[in-house]
Design a protein that fits this description.
Number of helices: 2
Order of helices and strands: HEEEEEH
Structural class: alpha+beta
Strand order of the largest sheet: 3-4-5
Helix content: 25-40%
Number of strands: 5
Distance between the termini: 31 Å
Length: 75
Amino acid sequence: MCDDPAMALTSLAILIQESLLEWTWQVWPVCPGHDIGVHASERDREVVWWCAGDGGHMLAPVGELARALGRRRPK
């Protein structure tokens, strides 16, 4: 068990990402600006999808990827 919610969420996001890669053989999620895979990372106590392109930038907070990519979440 983990007492740190940010670490737990980061670990869960990484686990899901790795499982999807094993099942689909595709990287997810991908930064639309750089066309490279992003990774879950804790930055300033926030769990985000982090892109390493152009020195690094946040793509979206984990849980907000659909909004950042301009997609609506299914109801």
